[in-house]
Amino acid sequence: MMSNDFLKRVAFCYLLMLTTLSVYAQRTELSGTVTSELNEPLAGVSIRIKGTNIAAQTDTRGHFIIPVDGPTTLIFSHIGYSDKELEVDGERIVSVVMEQNTQGLNEVIVVGYGVQSKRNITGSVAKVAVDKAEGTPTMNIAQTLRGKVAGVQFTSGSRPGQNGTVLIRGRRSLTGGNNPLIILDGIFFNGGLTDINVNDIASMEILKDASSTAIYGSRAANGVILITSKRGTTNKPQVRVNSLYGTSNASHVMKLLDSRRYIQKTLDVRRELGLPSNPEDIRQYLTSSEAENYDAGHVIDDPWKAISQQAALATLDVNVSGQGKNVNYLLSGSLADEQGLVYNDQMRRYTFRTNLESNLTNWLSLGMNSTFIQRNTSDKPANPTDALWMSPFGSLEYEDQEPTLYVIREDVAKNPLYDARLTEYEAIWNNLFTNFYAKINAPFLHGLSYRINFSPSIRWGHNYSYLRQDQHREINNTSASKFNQQDYDWVLENILTYKTRIGRDHDLDATLLYGRNHFGYESTTANASQFPADPVKWNRLDMAILQTNSSDATASDGSSLMARLNYGFKNRYLFTFTVRRDGSSVFAANNKYAAFPSAAFAWVISDESFVANSKIIDFLKLRVSHGVSGNQAIAAYQSLSFSGLTRYVFGDGGTTSIGLYSANMGNPNLKWETTTSTNIGLDFELFRGRLNGTVEAYYMDTDDLLVRRSLPITSGYTSVITNIGATNNKGIELSLNTINIRSKRFEWSTNVVFSRNINKIVHLYRSDINGDGREDDDLGNRWFIGKPINVGYDYVWDGIYQDGDAIPAGKKPGDVRLKDLNGNGVVNADDRTIIGPTTEPNFRWGITNEFRLGGFSLSIFLNAMQGWVANIDELNMRNFTLPSRPFNMFDMDWWTPENRSNTNSSLTYVNSLGHGKYFSRNFIRIQDVTLSYAIPPTLLHKLKLSSGKVYIGGRNLHTFTKFPGLDPELGYNVNSLYPMPRTLSFGLNFSI
Amino acid sequence: MIRNLIFTIIIGLVIVSSSCNEKAVLQEIPLSALGTEVVLSSEAGFDNYLTGLYFSARDELMTRKDRNFYYFMNVGTDVACAGILSWRDTDNYETSLTPSAAIVGFYWTWAYGEMIQRANIIIANANRSDNAGMWSSQKKKNEVIAQARFFRGYTYNVLANLFGGVPIVDTVYGYPKTDFVRSTRAEVYDFAKEDLEFASTWLPATVPANQEGRIVKAAADHLLSEVYISLGNYPKAIESASRVIESGLYRLMTERFGSAKGRDGDVFSDMFKLNNQNRRSGNLESIYVWQFEDQTPGGAGTAGYKNILRVWAPFYVNLRDPLGNTGMIVVDSLGRSVGGCRPTNYLVYDIWEDNWDNDMRNSPYNIRRVWYYNNPASPYFGQQVEKKTTETDTMQNIFPSIRKVEGVRGATTNIADGSTIEDFIVYRLAETYLLRAEAHFRNSDLQGAADDLNTIRARAGAKPVLPAQVSLDYILDERARELIAEEPRKRTLMRMGKLVERVKKYNISAVTRNTISEKHELWPIPQSEIDANFSAILEQNPGY
Tens of pLDDT along B334-359? Predict the structure, then answer.
């Protein structure tokens, strides 16, 4: 439950903010500078005093001077930027940061190691509308990607504090990582996306093609997410407060047997096994302890309910920002508190940020971006997988309300609440991530500048756990463990840039980089069991009888050298050339280095005379790029062969002997996985901005895949990491923004995103042993030439054998009928086939409709994925092992002689071929609906606020799907039966 | 100009930092892992690798508590079928013994992924040229190799018993190999024989008390005897067994001994009591013992302690008193079992018929035939459990129970766990006699066979067998009386080609009797292995 304390804290902080309102004195003249959000001076900005004709314009350095008289409102306007009003009352110097229009062509886009205007971008870069996250319960910045960016698949977990997974343009690597690289304020961020405070973020860009990612070389093959934190934008200190409160319930649960159905199951399974099954004797068929609860009427008809809690979330974020002549600052703090749907599942997160930049002189500035995050995931949640097996006639508690170990005495179905209630668990994770930098403009050559970044990242955390004495167990079951981890990484980068214009038509922009990076990890675990008493918990492990410990450490290093040249001719024909050479310690001795080149060309067609006068086309740009990027997503030491650890005790009363064994097959030739990609894109803006969008097509070949390939165990090892084979991803992406209706009071706009990615394995081992002229598949790994990387490969269901059917020997009515695909009269291993892709859908699309009426706006976001499947083993019968034991199961409509199901087998079906049961994961979901109201200026004035907004939002409101699992987007995993929350939230943003 | 200077200095730093020796930094020296060759360059390192092999050898008991070694090596034979309802899927040979069955994959993975791989690495590295000067003596080196070769031979014998011919892997592959092919069963036995002959030559006769559990010469000779039988070389089988019997180191136990000496029991029951398996306890019958040790890291395998009781005894906690209420509760003196293996009538009645009262192995200390209600809340508390008639009761909840499997649970083991901490005897002298008896019989020496059988029977107080009565079936009966719940019965039957015949004769599950067929004398090759070995065809056994 959300604590009252927390709400009080929220209220207190609000009060604190209100008291910081300040009063300013009067003056009569004003000068200042106007810059973009990325601190570039803006020339030609017009400044007008509200209600007068007094106006001025900024010069090339962004400077302006304007006479003022008393309290005045200045209006700043500039093409591609939102108009900005500034109230002044006596200041002499102001600096103003203008925010770009989201659809403006001069919108500044962050690219690797620099910024560019959207107009001049040559690669495939998508800017994410981060501000749209306001009004939705966004705890994780990646949630803003879901269904909003073409080609990006984000899947969140259903539990508090989970990172989820992001996949950009499909899966390339068979077993290497497929996670994109996260760059936070220019530096590799070695943390989860949930570690970043959403309200600290000014912009987020997704780099998709090789031209834009190649500058990140070895880690960029899976795409890059660039995140830039906010800076001060106003002269006057600005305080912004965002707060949100929400509650959640389960959007879908998989129903278990209630007591009536459980009894039916018990009778049906007995009858089919030829045992007595008289309903009146049910007490005899239940176990003794079940019979006791049956007699007493103690029944748990919904185990899910028994392990659930009221889910809620609350966030509070406060930031203070501003800028003076020589300093720009942002300070922020946030706290988020989230209670999951399952008992004891919780996450609490604090973040703090300091962004500071100081111009020491006109040629030297120093700065830092620093963030500290603490994530607390203490407490052991109940285990939903244990709840799945729980008999409705089981007991979760003894009479003294202590938890039982097993829900029934006779069998070992574990109490889903046992660990949750007996374990004290503290899990705290800290992340301190800082970038210190200096920028120097070369005094002797205009346009030449140098930047040095040094970014230490320290992450440390601990998991401490104590299992207290179970009063109902006759042994000393107490045990404790302490796990401490510390990671230390650093990145050092030297960056030289030179920007110039030669003549009228030639723009040059060159960047050179040399950098080094280090990653280090160490951990210690100490375990102890059998304490004399509970209270010392993990604080005195040496008080316990049996103590063991272990530790671990790894380190890896890298170096990088990068050059990039942007060349623009007539500002219409734009070229980008990059090359990056990376070195990494994780590869084998002969393959430490690899180079990744790329080139891109863009043509602004709308600047050509034959289009320039078109009344339809406002802007049209064609982009083509080609390049190579790399993947080093393997852990340290994987090219080496090393020893695993076991122990043995010889003799009676003996001591421990250490046993070692060869744990893996080394690979002295392990090298980089590389992706070569080609991208063609068309950016357009039509009908005076009413329709804009991007269409892109790409083709990516990934070679020398880092593969953990399974081996015949006969060889002594189960798998080895190798470079082998090739995969291909090709796809198309479409993003469209339309303004359907625009009037003074009403606006309706639509955003449509569609993507299709076709993923396939091109080569594996280039072998054709069976001589059929076609490269061999790898059945062991379920890898098939020409098919997606992750597919279900299985037998095909053909209904259920019914009485009267021709039933083969060994089968009986109620058994699953499998298709004899090769028609040879026998169903065996040769009748397996590819059922469908299991991790990536064929199509993804999202539609967002926004309606604005006066101060109200309503946003409705639909998200959909289609063309994928998942196997749900627990909706299948393996044999009667589980149904015949006092275990629960998902309530499915199993076959009986009376209920001749053609979709579910009987309870006694023996699945001797080990086949699965597949379901379509297609879905359309009402993902987010937000209704917000912007407080009108008159009221703001009375409240002494500069802006204010209240909203209510719903997330995951309804899913249209036939998938019987918990969530079609998440798929199915029996070890993670956490329901997907449906969240209703209320929020408030204001600034002073 | 100062600004020029500063700029130049900083750019200079870039060059300096670039010139640092990058190569050295990118060189990988693991912080937390030891390479195989680094360890295998001293005698101590070899002993660590041997210890890893001993760990795997004990893990033949399997990495799971239920449906483990004790279960699968007994159900579906002449001695047992599945008791608990939910395990009866294994009664059906046709549907449960398939190329994708977990048990089939387990044995293959254990054999090739652990035992043979670990043995091969030790053997290959012991002979590494740069280790030539490391060994303190040739004898020491050969003792190390002998232990590894024992385990390799042991494992190939298991594989040949279960699968017939399998690929012979005698080296370490440093690259992915996907073209294994099967050798014949005889070739595999022959390969095992070579390993065991070497082991017999170089293994020590005994080990110090604090090293018990290590392989000694007699273990190699004992197994050699079995392998020679499988190869049809009976004189060599007799010779190998005789080396053990006549070594002077081993004798059948005839007097009470060890930890339970002062309590009710007999010498046969003594052999299975806590701490009575190693020679230090005075048990001079044991040859090879898997070691368990409570409260000591390494004292348990992947699935914990010994899970034999959990599998073999009845699921008595489900018994109701005549009023239909809880009759039994779990107590330490009985332990907890789930009634996995239900003994056949053959095992608990037929084989004792002629010696019901005089054969020690049928004494109340060795087979529990009488049960008492022990739930204090039941009015029947303390009364003998009456004759039960429902199928669930007689198959799962109560039946004559082999008491060898009973034992002591660990200090922190939950009572419901059902595991116990005694060591487990893999080979003991009684079986050596049985192997020699079998070799004599197959060598047409009925008198010799009868003499060996009678040595064992005499210790148990059973009437002697006449030479004319000896047959392979009689030897199997005697093995059941002596070694039940110790020997992997299914492997013994498969080795002798008697599985199908004796299942049809003695198994009490109609499903088992009706579904077993000739093909089941051999297990199928795991489908996953056939799939992964795509560069050559790994032939499936016929009928699968």
Answer: 999 999 999 999 999 999 999 999 99
User: Judging by DSSP bridges, how do beta strands A181-184 and A224-229 pair with one another?
Assistant: parallel
pLDDT over 80 (residue A6): no
Q: pLDDT digits over B489-516, tens only?
A: 999 999 999 999 999 999 999 999 999 9
What do you get for the CA distance between the two ends of chain B, in Å?
Answer: 88
Q: Do B4 and A444 touch (CB under 8 A)?
A: yes
Residue of A nearest to B410 (CA): A475
| Contact of A984 with A954, CB cutoff 8 Å | yes
Q: For B51-63, write each residue's pLDDT tens digit.
A: 999 999 999 987 7
**CA–CA distance, B3 with A449 (Å, rounded to integer):** 13
How close, in Å, is residue A564 to chain B by CA atoms? 18
Q: What is the 3-state secondary structure (H, E, C) of A367-424?
A: EEEEEEEEEECCCCCCCHHHHHCCCCCCCCECCCCCECCECCCCCCCECCCHHHHHEE
Interface contact flag, A642 B209, Cβ < 8 Å: no
Q: What 8-state DSSP symbol labels residue B212?
A: B
| Cβ pair A636:B100 closer than 8 A | no
What percentage of residues in chain A have a pLDDT greater than 90? Answer: 53
Contact call for B298 and A405, based on CB within 8 A:
no
DSSP codes, A648-696: EE-STT--EEEEEEE-S---TT---EEEEEEEEEEEEEETTTTEEEEEE
Out of A399-413, A484-498, B361-375, pick the least confident: A399-413
3-class SS of residue B28: coil
> A589 by DSSP, 3-state: which?
helix
Q: What is the mean pLDDT of residues A674-700?
A: 92
For residues A17 and B23, give the distance between their C-alpha atoms in angstroms, rounded to a whole number.
54
Dihedral sign for Cα B72, B77, B80, B84, please: positive
Residues of A in contact with B53 (CB under 8 A): 659, 661
ipTM of the complex: 0.95
Give the pLDDT band of residue B234 (cuts 50, 70, 90).
very high
User: In the 3-class helix/strand/coil scheme, how is B116-145 assigned residue by residue?
Assistant: HHHHHHHHHHHCCHHHCCCCCCHHHHHHHH
By Cβ distance, the residue of A292, A716, A780 closest to B528 is A780
Q: Which residues of A touch B536 (CB under 8 A)?
A: 769
C-alpha–C-alpha distance, residues A262 and A883, integer Å: 10
Residues of A in contact with B176 (CB under 8 A): 665, 709, 711, 715, 720, 722
Q: Where is pLDDT greater, at A837 or A610?
A: A837
Least confident piece of the model among A111-125, A697-711, A900-914: A111-125
With CB atoms and an 8 Å threshold, state whether A654 touches B293. Answer: yes
A908: closest chain B residue by CA: B89
- Give pLDDT, residue B14: 62
> Other C-beta atoms within 10 Å of A542: how many?
8
Contact between A643 and B35 using a beta-carbon 8 Å cutoff: yes
d(CA A507, CA A110): 19
Contact A649 B315 (CB under 8 A): no
- Strands A479-502 vs A506-529: parallel, antiparallel or unpaired: antiparallel
Question: What is the residue whose two structure tokens read 């409260």?
Answer: B295
Q: pLDDT per residue over A577-624, tens digit each?
A: 999 998 888 888 778 888 889 999 999 998 888 887 788 888 999 999
CB neighbourhood size of B528 (10 A): 19
pTM: 0.83
A275–B392 C-beta distance less than 8 A: yes
Which residues does A115 contact at the CB level (< 8 Å), separation at least 6? A38, A40, A108, A109
B chain contacts of residue A556, beta-carbon cutoff 8 Å? 28
Pairs of CB atoms within 8 A across A/B: 335
Q: Tell me, what DSSP letter sits at residue A924?
A: E
